[in-house]
Amino acid sequence: MKINNKGNIEMKIITYLLVAAILTVGCSEILNKEPLGEVSESSAYTSDNDASQSLTSVYHVLLEFPSLFRYGIFDIASDDARKGGEGASDGAWMREFSHYTLNSENEIAGWIWEYSYLGINRANRVLENVPDIEMDQNKKDRILGEAKFLRAFFYFYLTTLYGDVPLITDSQVNTNEVERTSKNLVLELIYQDLRDASEVLPLKSQLSNQELGRATKGAAQAYLGKVFLYQGNFQNAESWFQRVIDSNEYSLDSKYARIFNIEGEFGPGNIFELNFRFDPQFPSVANAGTIRRGSAGMYGWGFSNPTQDLVDEFEPNDPRFQQTVFQDGDTLPDGKIGDVGNSETGYSSMKPYMSESETPPTGSPRDSGINEVLLRYGQLLLWYAEASNENGKTDQALNALNKVRERARQGNTNILPDVSTTDKDLLREKIWHEERVEYAMENKRWFDLVRQGRVGEVLRNYSEKYNTSKGGNFQDGIHELFPIPQSEIDLSQGNLGQNPGYN
Predict the structure, then answer these.
(1) Dihedral angle over CA of 363, 299, 81, 92, nearest 10
(2) Residue 108 DSSP label
(3) What distance in Å separates the CA atoms of residue 154 and residue 330, rounded to the nearest whole number?
(4) Which residues partner with 274 through β-bridges?
(5) Helix (H, G, I), strand (E, B) or coil at 175
(6) Hey, which bits of 47-183 come out as E strands?
(7) Are strands 348-349 and 372-376 parallel, antiparallel or unpaired?
(8) Which cellular compartments is it found in (predicted)?
(9) What's the helix, strand, coil split of the chain in %, to 5?
(10) Per-residue pLDDT reduced to its tens digit, 375-418
């Protein structure tokens, strides 16, 4: 059963997923495997149930993604977290990313490539086969819109992490059969897919309880703004974020900590989230983030330990600090006393913490039903503030920034005063600060540093300040991108070239 403190959401859209095995083979082998729960390639797509099953298989890739979300690697690669675990050899592929010694054999680079193209392949199947099914047109349009949203989602991460990548819109084509496509051309598909999705998807308020977790108009608009922001296109970023704000579909949850537990699922500020549910029939649909980032001293594997540098970034008495980080002796929300185990830094992350009341019937954190929020309104407001400031709209930027700070005070008017500076450069620094603490340990820090063009400087300064090799090897012009997996280069017989600086 699903544990829910409010008891008002018993059905979850992704609970009917049939389970695919964890896929750790080469990409070409993955794309040739028939996903369980999806219509067979050898059978006709004839019903709306076939269409729904095919779409469900695309969402399923997000749940099983082994590294993009669950480990917090994009915090580990930044100044916000150290790898953790049971020493340097435990998850060595994460250490390679954190210390910038990774090569084309790195497991993270391989996994993200493989699973992203698996999701794209399944989305392409939906887009190829569903149009010919005789079914309700509105339902058909929505399924196609969701497939486009998800295809854009995967392609966005690929272009952000690898640059030029194979652009494939045919499910019968494998990545090793085509050359890499210019990033700008792939972005054009992303923009079009998200625009198309935004025109046909329903608002969040129009979803039934059974549909919560599916992509919405607001999610498509928000991700379109995010893609433009990552390209430094502040005009379009501001415009699309403005549409989300003007929709009045989202607001800041008054209780910041609630965003990250079961009580806050599908809350007022949640724009897109991964929908987990414990089901004894399908135990391999595991919420691995809970255990991977959980303290090894309590129930987890102890990865992604917050750094002192992140701790020092919080302003005095900011309530978000204790709702983001805990250390030995802290009293946790369920009354337990914090134990960070063998944390490299003396800190553990609070946001993935599973309280006693949220423990699933099996007792295993891998079966946790806590959702993972991928994009929320507090993030969007800060991105909107950043874009507005770059566009010279100071008042607009200040308004959005101070809304986030107001919520952060959680009723204490003596802390976190409003930002009032109208100096563009200083305001930019204030917004960057707020971004770091507002969504700290949510696996976004590295992306921010890269898109802001300061990742090398920040990481080398961190390395020098703390006398560590972490971040010190970062080379500008190389490490902003991942290496193309060597296995894929070999399979392509030369079709796929390597990114500069990797072997």
Answers:
(1) -100
(2) H
(3) 39
(4) 372
(5) helix
(6) 81-84
(7) unpaired
(8) Cell outer membrane
(9) 50, 5, 45
(10) 999 999 999 999 999 999 999 999 999 999 999 999 999 999 99
The yes-or-no verdict on residue 42 having pLDDT over 90 is no
Dihedral angle computed from the Cα positions of residues 24, 119, 268 and 212, in that order, rounded to the nearest 10 degrees:
-100
Q: What's the per-residue H, E or C state across 281-343?
A: CCCCCCCHHHHHCCCCCCCCCCEEEECHHHHHHCCCCCCCCCCCEECCCCECCCCCECCCCCC
Angle, vertex CA 252, rays to CA 250 and CA 255, nearest 5: 135
pLDDT bin (cut points 50, 70, 90) of residue 64 is confident
The residue written with tokens 């929020």 in the block is 373
End-to-end distance of the chain based on CA atoms, in angstroms? Answer: 48
Convert the pLDDT of each residue in 322-368 to its tens digit: 999 999 999 999 999 999 999 999 999 999 999 988 888 888 887 88
pTM over 0.85: yes
Higher model confidence: residue 283 or residue 470? 470
pLDDT grade for 212, boundaries at 50, 70 and 90: very high
Mean pLDDT of 290-319: 95
C-beta separation of 265 from 213 below 8 A: no
120 and 168 Cβ atoms separated by less than 8 Å: yes
Inter-CA distances, 44 with 41, 132, 144, 156, 345, Å: 8, 10, 17, 31, 55
Cα R_g (the chain), whole angstroms: 22
Q: Helix, strand, or coil here: 272?
A: strand
Residue 388, both tokens? 């507005």
* Domains recognised in the chain with CATH numbers: 13-346+373-492 (1.25.40.390)
Distances (CA, A) of 237 to 226, 229, 240, 422: 6, 5, 5, 21
Q: Which long-range contacts (CB under 8 A, 24 or more apart) does 253-257 make?
A: 253/407, 254/407, 254/410, 255/410, 256/319, 256/320, 256/323, 256/407, 256/408, 256/410, 257/323, 257/333, 257/350
- Rounded distance between C-alpha atoms, residue 279 and residue 283, angstroms: 6
Measured CA angle at 152 (ends 52, 440), to 5 deg: 105
Tell me the average pLDDT of the chain: 90
The DSSP symbol for 501 reads: T
Residue 381 to residue 398: CA distance in whole angstroms: 10
